[in-house]
């Protein structure tokens, strides 16, 4: 008799503290910022960074960040709640097709539920085939690559390795572009059109891109495809990069500086969307929706609107379902493409 191979899909996002308190935030930040993919450096640079991280950052930042989490925290972290919603809705979408044999799970690169722990759990429950879906449309060595690293580390510890596939990126997938365009169009239909659409992405140090990280190219491609889909002229939108950290130059133009410049040059209203985030989180709900609003209005702008992430919208769940079919359909006899 042929071996029965159970199939799982694991949706993986960055991570979040377990609780909105300084202890939990410190534990999360230590795991996140200790990853060499996130903050690169060898030998002396690495030792220096770890000294700064453990001696300064982890003693000063957790209390401040915990207060920010408390401002957006309900019964759980928004990112974890949204990821759970995405898992639930994707499972429902697959089940509604009839004859579905795929089970959907969640995992985090940092924090809980951890990716390696999730893979171990799947192995113990008899899953032999696993599709890992990083919830990052645009590939970066700082976000997507750590997921590959953890999968490799898990496999190295196995005698009978699992059959694991990963989705590398979907920044230009037609259904992703359609979902973003639909989100923007629906928001503007409800609230009206602003002077400028600011398409803001999480930044990375410029030197990472100079060394070959394709992230900026992926971001610019997404922006071009979405604005083309919406029929927007080049004069009514701009791509920017947010959340720079430390003294190094990061990808430009910077979101906060751009918002100030726009307001001072007479732009009265802006919509801001963050396509790299498939779930709203501290960065979008606090930095983008609140802090950057203050930057824009403080420089003379009148109307600032944040367009929420795709979260568990039907269009995004449709994209996820299609990615499952495209990357794992042959495992369960459901091979078809819906890139339209």
Automatic annotation (TrEMBL):
Signal peptide coordinates: none
EC nos: 4.98.1.1
GO BP annotations, alphabetical order: heme biosynthetic process
Biological role: Catalyzes the ferrous insertion into protoporphyrin IX.
PROSITE patterns: FERROCHELATASE
Primary localization class, coarse: cytoplasm
Binding site for Fe(2+): 202, 283
Compartments, as annotated in UniProt: Cytoplasm
Pfam family, one: Ferrochelatase
Annotated keywords: Cytoplasm, Heme biosynthesis, Iron, Lyase, Metal-binding, Porphyrin biosynthesis
Group of enzyme by EC: lyase
Name of the protein this chain belongs to: Ferrochelatase
Pathway where this protein functions: Porphyrin-containing compound metabolism; protoheme biosynthesis; protoheme from protoporphyrin-IX: step 1/1
Family: Belongs to the ferrochelatase family.
GO cellular component: cytoplasm
Catalytic reactions on record: heme b + 2 H(+) = protoporphyrin IX + Fe(2+); Fe-coproporphyrin III + 2 H(+) = coproporphyrin III + Fe(2+)
Organism of this sequence: Neptunomonas marina
């Amino acid at each position: 008799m042929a071996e029965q191979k159970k199939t799982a899909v694991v949706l993986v996002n960055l991570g979040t503290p377990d609780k909105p308190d300084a202890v939990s935030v410190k534990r999360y930040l230590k795991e996140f910022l200790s990853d060499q993919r996130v903050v690169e450096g060898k030998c002396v640079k690495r030792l220096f960074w770890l000294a700064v991280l453990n001696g300064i950052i982890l003693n000063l930042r957790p209390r401040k960040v915990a207060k920010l989490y408390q401002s957006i925290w309900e019964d759980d972290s928004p990112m974890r709640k949204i990821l759970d919603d995405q898992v639930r809705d994707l499972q429902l979408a697959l089940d509604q097709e009839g004859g579905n044999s795929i089970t959907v799970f969640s995992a985090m690169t940092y924090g809980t539920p951890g990716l390696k722990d999730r893979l171990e759990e799947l192995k113990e429950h008899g899953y032999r085939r696993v599709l890992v879906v990083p919830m990052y449309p645009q590939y970066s060595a700082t976000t997507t690559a750590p997921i590959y690293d953890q999968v490799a580390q898990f496999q190295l510890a196995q005698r009978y390795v699992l059959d694991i596939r990963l989705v590398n990126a979907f920044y230009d997938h037609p259904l992703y572009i359609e979902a973003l365009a639909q989100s923007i169009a629906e928001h503007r239909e409800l609230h009206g059109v602003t002077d400028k659409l600011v398409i803001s992405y999480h930044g990375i140090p410029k030197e990472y891109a100079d060394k070959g990280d394709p992230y900026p190219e992926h971001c610019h491609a997404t922006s071009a495809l979405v604005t083309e889909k919406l029929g927007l002229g080049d004069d009514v939108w701009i791509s920017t990069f947010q959340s720079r950290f430390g003294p190094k130059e990061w990808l430009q133009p910077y979101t906060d500086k751009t918002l100030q410049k726009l307001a001072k040059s007479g732009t009265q209203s802006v919509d801001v969307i963050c396509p790299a985030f498939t779930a709203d989180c501290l960065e979008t709900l606090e930095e983008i929706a609140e802090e950057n609003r203050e930057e824009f209005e403080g420089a003379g702008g009148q109307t600032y609107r944040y367009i929420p992430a795709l979260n568990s919208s039907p269009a995004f769940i449709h994209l996820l379902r299609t990615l499952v079919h495209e990357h794992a359909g042959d495992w369960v006899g459901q091979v078809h493409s819906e890139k339209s």
